[in-house]
Amino acid sequence: MSLQKQVMDKMKEAMKAKDKVALQALRAVKAAFLLAKTETGVQEELTEEQESKIIQKQVKQRKDSAAIFLKQNREDLAAPELAEITVLEQFLPEALSEEKIEEVVIATIEKLGASGMKDMGKVMGIVSKELAGQADGGTISAFVKKNLM
């Protein structure tokens, strides 16, 4: 079942349960899906990968907002953002542990023969494609920097 269909089903459940936080998060994802569909100009279905990227983007936006709110001591505004994150994360694939991410980074560095920071772009490109949807870009970048130094 596509992520769009799963989001719609969860949205119906949230409406019946009168769960305003979940409903708000799911409506935002639905809007992002529709926007992505219309951006291409053709009313074609989104691929599973595109759907996953859209949800990841929504989660990242909420994490950034929550971090800003917490930095400014606005827990009242951060709480709904964090609650929406938990709703959206159920649609994402299971995130890899930091050990697994580092293993992939080290294996890629060895395979490419990367030796310094000048090779960071090559390593990041390959690792990011390999771990798409399973790891955050910032986490990957930190491990690449650590292992290329």
Can you summarize this structure?
This protein is mainly alpha-helical and 149 residues long. Helix content is 75%, strand content 0%. Helix 1 (3-17) runs antiparallel to helix 2 (20-39) and helix 5 packs across helix 7.
Strand content: under 5%
Largest sheet: none
Radius of gyration: 18 Å
- Overall, the morphology is globular
The whole-number mean of residue pLDDT values reads 88
Q: Terminal Cα separation, in Å? A: 43 Å
User: Which series of helices and strands comes N to C?
Assistant: HHHHHHH
Number of helices: 7
Total beta strand runs: 0
Low-pLDDT stretches: none
Description:
- With 149 residues, the chain is an all-alpha fold.
- It is built from 7 helices and no strands.
- It has helices spanning 3-17, 20-39, 48-71, 75-89, 98-112, 120-130, 137-148.
- Helix 2 crosses helix 4 and helix 6 (120-130) packs across helix 7 (137-148).
- The longest helix is centred in the middle third of the chain and has 24 residues, at 48-71.
- The mean pLDDT is 88.
Characteristics of this structure?
mainly alpha, 75% helix, 7 helices
Helices and strands in order, then pairings?
Layout: H1 3-17, H2 20-39, H3 48-71, H4 75-89, H5 98-112, H6 120-130, H7 137-148
